[in-house]
Amino acid sequence: MTSLKIVSWNINSVRFRIEIVEKFLREVAPDILCLQETKVIDADFPEGAFRALGYDTIFLHGQRMHHGVAIISRIPLVEDDRFDWQANREARHVGVRLPNGVRLENVYVPAGGDIPDREINAKFGQKLDFVERMTAWSATLDCPTILTGDFNIAPLESDVWSHKQLIKVVSHTPIEVDALNRLKDSNSWVDLGRHFYPAPARLHTWWSYRSPDWTVNDRGRRLDHMWATADVAATARSHQVFEDCRNWLKPSDHVPIMTEFDL
């Protein structure tokens, strides 16, 4: 049996923050790194920095200045899928298959704008439609799968610093939570973060840049997730949230999450 460590991290520009990515890889040494919001076309992705650290398997789905996802690995991976759940060719998904046949899907769900009303905010409607397309895909999924990334939805009351103050704020509204729950219920998905840290335990992965010191009020949300179908979830050994990365030089507003599997 082999241990496999998989990390997900919305890096908010991989080129701008390549130094902290390198630092993280040196210190934590995951087997696979899933990045979201890379904000770079494939030709300009800093592959050399990853290859220098032994991460020679790289799958990219990039876009200039916006969005973008990548899967970087030091073990062999095959099959490069790019689902257009946004239905406008934005670079928000890349998927691969592990050597043991398990699927790994890396997704960047749209943020959804500021107003939780699809009639007056097209971005919110796009977000809901994105999740519904994922749900349709999930309902027909028939192989062991890990689904991870920035879901941009904090589903539980304990996933945000204040349920009362955020219930009408995009990322925690009932309509978004209902959509994410339908996705979860469409297959045998296990939310690994909450599997290892059951609610109401504090579990945040994102803090706004608007606060000069994110630690003062700790106004976090759990927007980043690692799910697995029940067969894969049964092999999960641990789950970590690397909050200290929010204090690093030029940090992302998200921090890495990592699940270790016995696969």
> How many domains is the backbone divided into?
1
Report, as a whole number of angstroms, the end-to-end distance.
6 Å
Major β-sheet profile: 6 strands, mixed
Q: Per CATH, what is the topology?
A: Deoxyribonuclease I, Chain A
Description:
The chain is α+β, with helices and mostly antiparallel strands and 263 residues long. The protein has helices spanning 18-28, 47-51, 122-139, 163-166, 174-185, 192-196, 214-217, 230-233; strands at 3-10, 32-36, 57-61, 69-73, 78-81, 93-97, 103-108, 145-150, 189-191, 206-207, 220-221, 224-229, 236-241, 257-262. A six-stranded mixed beta sheet has the order 3-4-2-1-14-13. The chain has a six-stranded mixed beta sheet with strand order 5-6-7-8-12-9. Strands 10-11 form a two-stranded antiparallel sheet. A hairpin with a 7-residue loop joins strand 3 and strand 4. Helix 3 packs parallel to helix 5. The mean pLDDT is 97.
List the helices and strands and how they pair.
Layout lengths: L2 E8 L7 H11 L3 E5 L10 H5 L5 E5 L7 E5 L4 E4 L11 E5 L5 E6 L13 H18 L5 E6 L12 H4 L7 H12 L3 E3 H5 L9 E2 L6 H4 L2 E2 L2 E6 H4 L2 E6 L15 E6 L1
Parallel strand pairs: 1-2, 7-8
Antiparallel strand pairs: 1-14, 2-4, 3-4, 5-6, 6-7, 8-12, 9-12, 10-11, 13-14
Helix pairs in contact: 3-5
